[in-house]
Amino acid sequence: MLFVEARFFLFIALVFAFYWSLRVNFHRKVLLLGASYFFYGCWDWRFAIMLFAISLADYFFARAMADCKIIGRKKLLVTLSVVMNMGVLCYFKYFNFFADSFVGLCNAMGFHASHVTINVILPVGVSFFTFQALSYTIDVYRGTIKPARLVVDYLLSSSFFPQLVAGPIVRPAFFLPQLARRREFPLEEVRPLLALFFLGFLKKACLADNISPYVDRIFADPHA
User: Fold this and answer.
1) DSSP state of 178
2) In this structure, is the dihedral angle defined by the CA atoms of residues 48, 161, 84 and 91, taken in order, positive or negative?
3) DSSP of 43-56
């Protein structure tokens, strides 16, 4: 589901309408959480499951660090979080690069090595939610922020669909406090927000999408 597709406009209109029709803040968060995973699952439902599993693990890592008084154990927990998140990122995004580099190094040193590549679909936004998750567990480890009390809060902060696949990276320290209270409809902000939304849409649909083929040619052959 791309941001410039008609079904995205239908999707966001439905989410917007249902969100403001709900009066209980927790129900609103559950709605946004479900919408976010539905949105991400439209790319590939398996990656939605992966995102859920990683986020759930980071939630428990952070809770365990906050309750732990032993420095060594806290270091172990944050290390596990870093290894898990970076392992996922490296596997999907950099495995073939490192494998090819290793084979090239072996051949340059006189050792025969065969190329090993894996054909995987790169999860959309994997870099964004990986570094966002790392900022959360590292901040909890440092004591900069307190861990999310409700699992739904952290799951929503790690999967919030407006910034999940294209960024920017939103630090949980900034996002989580906004989930603590029920928001009122910002009537005075609707007009400037809609103006920003449609300005961004026009830049994407009319400008970026039309010049991208020419830019791709330049990057593909910069010496041409």
Assistant:
1) G
2) positive
3) T-HHHHHHHHHHHH
Look up residue 102 and give its two tokens: 């290793």
- The answer to pTM > 0.85 is no
Report how far residue 140's alpha carbon sits from residue 148's, in angstroms, rounded to the nearest whole number. 10
Which sign, positive or negative, has the C-alpha torsion 204, 205, 210, 212?
A: positive
Q: What is the pLDDT of residue 2?
A: 67
**How many angstroms separate the Cα of 190 from the Cα of each of 20, 186, 196?**
13, 7, 10
The candidate with the shortest Cα–Cα distance to 133, out of 35, 48, 39, 54, is 54
Yes or no: say if 186 and 148 are a contact pair by the CB < 8 Å rule.
no
| Torsion from C-alpha of 162, 164, 166, 168, nearest 10 degrees | 80
Angle at 20 between CA 133 and CA 45, to 5 degrees: 40
DSSP 69: -
Domain of residue 174, residue span = 6-185
Q: How confident is the model at residue 171 (pLDDT cuts 50, 70, 90)?
A: confident
Residues 159 and 190 in one domain: no
Q: Is residue 1 part of a domain?
A: no
Q: Is residue 61 part of a domain?
A: yes
The b/e string for 34-47 (b: 16+ C-beta within 10 A; e otherwise) is ebbbebbbbbeeeb
Token pair listed for 176: 């989580």
Reduce the DSSP state of residue 173 to 3 states and report it: helix
